[in-house]
Amino acid sequence: MANHSSQSPLRVAVVGAGFIADFHLEVLKNTPEVELVAVCDAVLEKAEAKAKQFAIPHAVASISELKDLGVNMASLLLPPPLHSSLIRETLEAGIGVMVEKPMVLSSEDARELGALANSKGLPLAVNHNAVTHPSFAALCKRIEDGEIGRVEHVRVTLSVPLRQLDAGDFSHWMFRTPANIVFEQGPHPCAQVHALVGSVKTATTTVLKSRELHPGQQFNNRWLIAAEAERGTVEMYFAFGEDFTRSTIEVLGTDGSIEADLFNDHIAGETKTMYLDFWNSYKAGANRSKELKQSASKVLKDYLRFTIGMGPREDAFFAGMRDSIRGTYQALARGDAPLATAEDGAQVLEWCEAITKDVSNESGAAEVTLSDAPARPGEVVLLGGTGFIGKRVIAKLLERNIPITLIVRRTHSMPAIVVENAANGKIRLVMGTLEDGASMRAALEGARSVVQLATGGGDTWEAVEKAMIGGSVGFAQAAMDAGAERYVYISSVASLYCGLDCGVGIIPDSMPTDPQPLLRPLYSRGKAATEDALIKMQKDKGLPLVILRPGVVLGEGTPMQHSGVGLWARDNHCVGWGLGDTPLPLVWVDDVADAIVESALFNGDAIHGLTMNLCAKIDLNAAQVVEAMRKATGRALHFHPRSLSTSQTMEIGKWIVKRVGGRKVDFPAYRDLKARGLSVPFASDGAREHLNWKPVEDPEEFLDKAIRIYGA
User: Fold this and answer.
1) 232 near 152, Cβ under 8 Å?
2) Whole-angstrom Cα distance, residue 61 to residue 315?
3) Which SS3 state, helix, strand or coil, does residue 455 take?
4) Close Cβ partners of 411 (under 8 Å, ≥ 6 residues apart)
5) What does CATH list as the number for 10-127?
6) Angstrom distance (rounded) from CA 76 to CA 563
7) Rounded Cα distance, 220 and 239, in Å
8) Kind and range of the H or E element at 210?
9) How far apart are CA 330 and CA 307, in angstroms?
């Protein structure tokens, strides 16, 4: 690796403008040895937004543009399948690389890229931030100091939830093959094990539990690994998609043991003493308790100091990322080797390969074929049809032998109902997204109805305006241009203001969107603005529009922790939007699908311009729903009633602390809390009258269909 003068900062670009980029950019902005030059992303608008957010001078869409900006180091923060080609492209451009884990997807490839970097005199580093996790770093220091003697055995537990599994979104790379989850999640514990006992010699893996996500798409939930390494033996238990998070690493030595709780950032150990067994046992427990109390107190103090602006951010994940990223760039600026080299990356990948050697790395998920055929007579086009509600809509349309066009983002990881019916020709598949509306006219030509289930969104109002609102308007215009007879937009009761002071005793179908949308979160504000924009199109241009507003939609295929029930502080602790003693606007997912299908197939224009609520009259409140979930699942679920005024007081308290700490945050809107309470009942007269809608309203039947299914 070529030396770098400490007198001139490294000129760095971040490649990839996704979630993880925020951590790299925040750290690099505060690293004196670094000058942030550019953000690079294939979607230039994403790069521009991130560059603006962090006041970085340049935003580009390709690696080739970085060389002209004088960039000599790049942090690559892209999906793992892209790592190999982009590392090579960046090195060939004369730019060094720090890449997120996993470095690549094979140890052989890692070594080839390491050799390429060496031949060009460029650094190639890997972000193994788990090795710089505060508790793990403390564990290593105590081992180096000889506290537990010679290391003999390492025991790892990694039990984590996966939000994509809960949401039924199986399109992520980690679900493509059974082995991918280890390459996605495993490099963290494998890097720690490698740091403790070296490279792997042998490994035996037992898959304890599996499930099929989609036809042929196998996912292994639980893994048990026994391994021998250079300097000791190892046990690892991996559990993915679990309800309780546990991430620990325990090291057993000849003269003691140390365990780091990585999730909670705690550490405690046990060593031998000179005392008799009874006193030795007491000392072991007392010392462990003392250490855990000290660790817990430090975590609390660090959080409070940061929150009130009297100390730096020290939460474990951020601190590990900071020390890995900053430590690597500081080492490179001195001309030293990075904290984790390409060879380190290769050896960590050898651990992943050893764990998965007997597990398929081939995708068994069926690929669906796109169609270039025109829409068939009477066809219904679905945008967003592979989701929770959309799959029900597809099933109900197929029951009626209605031809379907499904506009999809991808051709892999499709639900069984799509795979089967795309193959037999009942579903026509077209590639596209909500944002592609203006270019979708040809795909919509001849369709009877277009149903928009896709939402769009973003982290800023500008992104929401473009994706959710602009995308919907563009798609509706394409539907009009193509001659569609009806455009059905699936909104939400979140677009309304339904606090007790809303001015009505029952919220009618005709209720306009919240007149004060700026006091609502982005989703609610976006839904309201989209409704308003489409209604304007209906009035000005004759868009054959129908808007449906489902309430709290429950049923198989969506996480039971629905935000309409309350604020799920943990997946088993639900804090009420109020006392939880008023009936919720619940509705079974199949009943929502019925209303959508009837709207799409309705003859004539009598429903054009109508907005219809989809809320059943079920006498169940939030506390009763959570209690029913508890009984059905056997889990320790808890509902915590909290008055809205108490919640608002707490929100104001948090706001004050953040403001004192120098953070720019909006004052909490009491209006939004009142809206979330859903305390005013909803009428659904339009759906009942025009669509002959008859939702499940018997409480016991609803519990059977929408709640007790979680205990199956």
Assistant:
1) yes
2) 33
3) coil
4) 367, 368, 369, 370, 429, 431
5) 3.40.50.720
6) 35
7) 9
8) strand 200-214
9) 27
Task: State residue 438's pLDDT score.
Answer: 72
Q: How much is the pLDDT for 365?
A: 66
Alpha-carbon gap, residue 202 to 226, rounded angstroms? 8
Give residue 364's pLDDT.
67
d(CA 422, CA 405): 10
Other beta carbons within 10 Å of 319: 20
- Alpha-carbon distance of 138 to 147, in angstroms, equals 12
Separation of alpha carbons 27 and 312, rounded Å = 12
Rounded alpha-carbon distances, angstroms, from residue 289 to 146, 157, 267, 316: 21, 21, 10, 21
The pLDDT of residue 2 is 45
How many other β-carbons are positioned within 10 Å of the β-carbon of residue 691?
22
Place of tokens 């499904």: 406
User: How many angstroms separate the CA atoms of 148 and 257, rounded?
Assistant: 6
Residue 235: φ, ψ to 5°: -120, 135
| Helical (H) or strand (E) element with 406 | strand 404-408
Sign of CA dihedral 166, 171, 177, 179: negative
DSSP bridge pairs for 260: 249, 267
- What would the two tokens of residue 201 be? 């010699």
pLDDT given for residue 1 in this prediction: 45
User: What is the CA 110 to chain-centroid distance, rounded?
Assistant: 28
Nearest to 336 by CA among 138, 123, 18, 41: 123
DSSP codes, 127-175? E-GGGG-HHHHHHHHHHHTTTT-SEEEEEEEEEE--HHHHTT---SGGG
Find all residues with CB under 8 Å of 574, minimum gap 6, and list them: 561, 565, 566, 567, 568, 622, 626, 637, 638, 639, 640
User: Do the Cβ atoms of 175 and 344 come closer than 8 Å?
Assistant: no
Nearest-Å Rg of the Cα atoms of the chain is 28
Structural tokens at position 585: 């606007």
∠ CA 271-276-282, rounded to 5°:
60
pLDDT along the chain (712 residues), means of 10: 60 95 95 96 92 95 94 96 97 97 97 97 97 97 96 97 83 90 96 98 96 86 97 97 94 97 96 87 91 94 87 93 97 95 98 93 74 84 92 96 92 85 90 83 88 87 90 94 95 94 94 94 95 97 97 93 94 94 96 97 94 96 96 95 95 86 84 94 95 96 95 78
How far apart are the C-alpha atoms of 700 and 696, rounded to whole Å? 10
Angle between helices 388-399 and 589-601 (to 10 degrees): 50
Residue labelled with tokens 């090579």: 88
Give pLDDT, residue 512: 95
Distance (Å, whole) CA 378 – CA 49: 42
Indicate the pTM of the whole model: 0.86
Where residue 627 falls (left for φ over 0; alpha for ψ -120 to 50; beta otherwise) is alpha
* Superfamily of domain 131-308+342-356, CATH level 4: Dihydrodipicolinate Reductase; domain 2 (3.30.360.10)
Among all chains, which residue has been given the structure tokens 């398929």? 360
Cα distance between residue 246 and residue 156, in whole Å: 10
Which amino acid is residue 521, in one-letter code?
P
The strand pairing partners of 449, in sequence order, are: 380, 486
Closest CA to 545 of 476, 482, 492: 476
* 567-570 vs 573-575, strand pairing mode: antiparallel
**In the chain, what are the domain boundaries?**
10-127, 131-308+342-356
Equal CATH topology for 10-127 and 131-308+342-356: no
Please report, for residues 142, 519, 579, 641, 665, the alpha-carbon distance to residue 645 in angstroms, rounded to integers and kept in the order given: 49, 17, 11, 12, 20
